[in-house]
User: Which sequence fits this backbone?
């Protein structure tokens, strides 16, 4: 029996792997010490667990454990990295470069830097969602101090060329930050090889708990940051606050499992994704958003033309997915990421993000395919636009009575 | 192996079984992102809403006044820096005995044009009235005074301090992480007196680490510390830590239900241990004024605190020397320094903080062990001299 | 987004979906909205003797509330004269479907669709049947 709704929103968050939860629980109950307590075994035991987890996080990305700073999540990591680096190196320049398709945690942080007197360039991407390296190089200036580019996009799953960007930044002495929240367990990350200075991680996109993340801060060459949270001087002064041991243990275990199982899991998910894509591609007028090659297999973002997004979500409520529009306010706001690809608003509205994960089954994919066939057909029967297109009307020539 | 006796509840507390039970479903099953629009997301949102109500109820606040953060340190940073971000630089006053996560951000503001006044305390650890009055007459814009001190447990009369703060138009904050669950905390009443914000933390009251709250008068406009997505009314972005928030809600509910019984229980233990300590020639810090029923802060003259807690740990008793966060720091406690305690005596400081699971038998055994240790250490000291 | 039971009913079982044949008598069409705004409604009425609307059909590209609003008006206009059809106000639609404030525009669009269909009918048939 299928459990409905079927969860195909692994990029929003993932369940905590039961093996991870099992490791976490003792640190809530019997091993509950404050890792900062230096005067008794409760504290030492917690501290040892925190350090073991730090090693696991470092191992997944081939870094030194001393380069890992705990935070409350990727949003905080992004804030600490971008604000911390910009503020620390402000004496060298005040120009920051990022990309329009970054996560809000990066974009909103950059907006705040602008209020603090920094100048930020937001680079457009190509129609496939990827950053053009020539456009990137042209945007750099002598006063550029920080560049922030994500590794894997949260909406369309495309993988940005961070190795190349890193080389360019290092050659010019620019601090390079990478938001890797969507990347861990999905792509190999080798920080010994990559010229990345700062990298944000979180646990809850990789089968760990919410409320915990980390920031990689390179030691060689050493990267400095202005701390954003002050207090007891935890995390070598980078980030004060009591460490949430059970969550840290959970992130460590989640990243350990990711390291061990990533290879096989990726192939299994690629097969499921291909099955889904094949199953949907015989529906008329469907478009994949974002490059299909430079992309993690976990993500499939598709626009179904002539079907309105919100009614589509209503029709497929047996699937827990994300849509291309953020319907938080009165007006449907099409996703800024899809807009950046040059998709018209209608196609952005009618897009669905399917993200597959560790617990996705073939049966679930088949159910989704069948459901979409039925519902897209039904909604198009209801759609005056579809009718016009079938009659050969070119919609772009129609004079709409603007509402 | 025998289980050591935990006497350090001001550093952290074990999560209550009911709290853990409430949290578990939100890890592997109800794991949705509260921002998602599908049923997984809506279930997470409902859980957060319920917890917000529970936290608010515990301090007599409205649910819409609760801003969840990742910890007490973050909540204190958010208030201090967030308020400063919305005001023209001026005078900022925090008590000299605040936790570092209030003092450090306040010090940071000095780089941005603010002037910091450290409110003095008397020998008992209470805000010095004369000094307070002098600072208030200089019209500080932000004032932060904790309800109960984490080291001494000494309480401040925050209500009347805030009234004075209000008369000069200050934004008044109080760190209540040690107070909640141990004595009544009523945000509405404090708010009426002139308190605009109050910090709470889950892991001090049988909740999980990783969840805390700033209870905030909505007339206060704060600049967020963490941007990106606009969660928590734009004051704190980032995917909500649903499980920990759920645990925090339950912990708050239990803390209020059990408060009086707990206070009675730990007060008895405190009296028992204090009798014993005085018999050993200990000096009790902050003994005079009203203080938390669970906290005893003492030193035995001529005996080093670090050494003593080391011995106690080996004997199976977990206590603290100075505050947990600054334990790595060999400097004597800034709280005792502010109280004018001589550095030699301050270096002997040991804190015992009781919790629900402690018993009279444990205290009796503890005192027995301590007596033996003290005798031995005093003999060693005598030989060294 | 929480939908009312009535919206869900119309959305799951929309009434009078479709289009009339081009050659049928007494057909008028109102098309309102724009794809870029996320809503397009097409309302068709079939007007008989004495200006009475005998039948109505719709197609809607839009959210559940837009679909429900147009489905509802096809039921409401039937049996009315075209003048009576113009009495249907968006507030009545919104009330019947318990639309939340953010969805009021769907009911306005449905009212506009009626007006557009009636205008189309009058344009095609002059004033002769206006009762």
Assistant:
């Amino acid at each position: 029996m299928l459990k409905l709704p079927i969860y195909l929103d692994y990029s929003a968050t993932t369940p905590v792997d039961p093996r991870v939860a099992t490791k976490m629980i003792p640190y809530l109950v019997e091993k509950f010490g404050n890792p900062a307590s230096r005067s008794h075994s409760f504290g030492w035991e917690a501290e040892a667990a925190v350090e073991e987890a730090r090693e696991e996080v470092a191992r997944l990305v081939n870094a030194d454990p001393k380069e890992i700073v705990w935070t409350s999540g990727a949003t905080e990591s992004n804030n600490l990295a971008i604000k911390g680096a910009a503020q620390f190196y402000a004496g060298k320049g005040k120009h920051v470069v990022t990309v329009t398709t970054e996560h809000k945690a990066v974009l909103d942080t950059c907006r705040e830097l602008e209020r603090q007197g920094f100048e930020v360039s937001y680079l457009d991407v190509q129609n496939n969602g990827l950053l053009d390296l020539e456009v990137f190089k042209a945007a750099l200036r002598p006063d550029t101090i920080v560049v922030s580019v994500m590794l894997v996009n949260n909406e369309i799953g495309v993988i940005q060329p961070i190795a190349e960007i890193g080389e360019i930044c290092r050659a010019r002495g620019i601090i390079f930050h990478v938001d890797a929240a969507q990347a861990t367990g999905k792509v190999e990350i080798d920080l010994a090889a990559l010229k990345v200075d700062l990298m944000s991680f979180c646990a809850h996109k990789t089968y760990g708990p919410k409320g915990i993340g980390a920031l990689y801060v390179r030691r060689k060459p050493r990267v400095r940051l202005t701390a954003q949270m002050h207090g007891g001087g935890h995390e070598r002064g980078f980030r004060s606050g009591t460490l949430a041991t059970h969550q840290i243990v959970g992130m460590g275990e989640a990243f350990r499992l990711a390291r061990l199982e990533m290879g096989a899991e990726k192939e299994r998910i690629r097969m499921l994704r291909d099955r889904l894509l094949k199953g949907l591609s015989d529906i008329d007028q469907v478009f994949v958003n974002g490059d299909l090659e430079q992309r993690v297999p976990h993500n499939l973002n598709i626009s179904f033309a002539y079907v309105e997004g919100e009614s589509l979500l209503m029709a497929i409520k047996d699937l827990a997915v994300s849509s291309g529009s953020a319907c938080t306010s009165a007006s449907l706001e099409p996703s800024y990421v899809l807009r950046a690809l040059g998709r018209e608003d209608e196609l952005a509205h009618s897009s669905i993000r399917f993200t597959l994960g560790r617990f996705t089954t073939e049966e679930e994919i088949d159910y989704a395919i069948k459901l979409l066939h039925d519902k897209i057909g039904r909604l198009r029967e209801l759609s005056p636009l579809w009718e016009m297109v079938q009659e050969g009307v070119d919609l772009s020539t129609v004079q709409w009575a603007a509402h | 192996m025998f289980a050591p006796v935990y006497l350090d509840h001001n550093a952290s507390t074990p999560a209550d079984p009911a709290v853990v039970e409430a949290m578990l479903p939100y890890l592997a099953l109800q794991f949705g992102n509260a921002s998602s629009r599908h049923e997984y997301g809506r279930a997470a949102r409902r859980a957060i809403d319920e917890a917000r109500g529970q936290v608010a109820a515990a301090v007599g606040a409205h649910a819409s006044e609760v801003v969840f953060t990742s910890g007490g340190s973050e909540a204190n940073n958010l208030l201090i820096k967030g308020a400063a971000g919305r005001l023209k630089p001026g005078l900022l006053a925090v008590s000299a005995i605040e936790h570092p996560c209030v003092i450090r951000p306040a010090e940071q503001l000095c780089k941005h044009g603010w002037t910091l006044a450290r409110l003095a305390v008397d020998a008992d650890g209470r805000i010095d009235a004369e000094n307070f009055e002098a600072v208030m007459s200089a019209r500080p814009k932000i004032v932060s005074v904790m309800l109960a001190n984490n080291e001494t447990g000494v309480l401040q009369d925050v209500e009347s301090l805030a009234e004075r703060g209000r008369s000069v138009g200050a934004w008044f904050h109080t760190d209540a992480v040690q107070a909640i669950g141990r004595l009544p905390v009523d945000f509405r009443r404090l708010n009426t007196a002139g308190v605009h914000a109050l910090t709470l933390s889950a892991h001090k009251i049988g909740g999980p680490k990783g969840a805390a709250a700033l209870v905030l008068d909505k007339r206060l406009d704060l600049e967020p510390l963490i941007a990106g997505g606009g969660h928590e009314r734009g004051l704190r972005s980032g995917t909500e830590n649903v499980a920990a928030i759920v645990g925090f809600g339950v912990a708050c509910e239990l803390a209020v239900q059990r408060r009086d019984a707990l206070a009675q229980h730990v007060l008895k233990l405190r009296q028992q241990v204090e009798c014993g300590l005085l018999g050993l020639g200990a000096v009790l810090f902050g003994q005079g004024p009203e203080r938390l029923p669970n906290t005893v802060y003492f030193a035995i003259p001529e005996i080093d605190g670090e050494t003593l807690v080391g011995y106690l740990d080996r004997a199976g008793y977990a206590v603290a020397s100075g505050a947990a966060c600054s334990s790595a720091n060999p400097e004597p406690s800034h709280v005792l320094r502010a109280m004018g305690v001589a550095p030699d005596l301050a270096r002997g400081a040991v804190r015992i903080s009781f919790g629900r699971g402690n018993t009279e038998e444990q205290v009796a055994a503890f005192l027995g062990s301590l007596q033996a240790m003290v005798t031995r250490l005093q003999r060693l000291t005598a030989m060294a001299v | 987004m929480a939908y009312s039971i009535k919206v869900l009913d119309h959305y799951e079982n929309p009434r009078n979906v479709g289009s009339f044949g081009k050659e049928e008598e007494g057909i008028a069409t109102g098309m309102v909205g724009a794809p870029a705004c996320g809503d397009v409604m097409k309302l068709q009425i079939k007007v008989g003797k004495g200006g009475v609307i005998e039948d109505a059909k719709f197609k809607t590209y839009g959210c559940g509330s837009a679909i429900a609003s147009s489905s509802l008006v096809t039921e409401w206009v039937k049996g009315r004269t075209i003048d009576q059809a113009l009495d249907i106000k968006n507030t009545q639609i919104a009330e019947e479907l318990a639309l939340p404030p953010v969805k009021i525009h769907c009911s306005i669009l449905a009212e506009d669709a009626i007006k557009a269909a009636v205008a189309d009918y009058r344009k095609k048939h002059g004033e002769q049947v206006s009762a």
Notes: The two ends of chain B are 37 Å apart (CA to CA). Residues 51 and 249 of chain B are 4 Å apart (CA to CA).
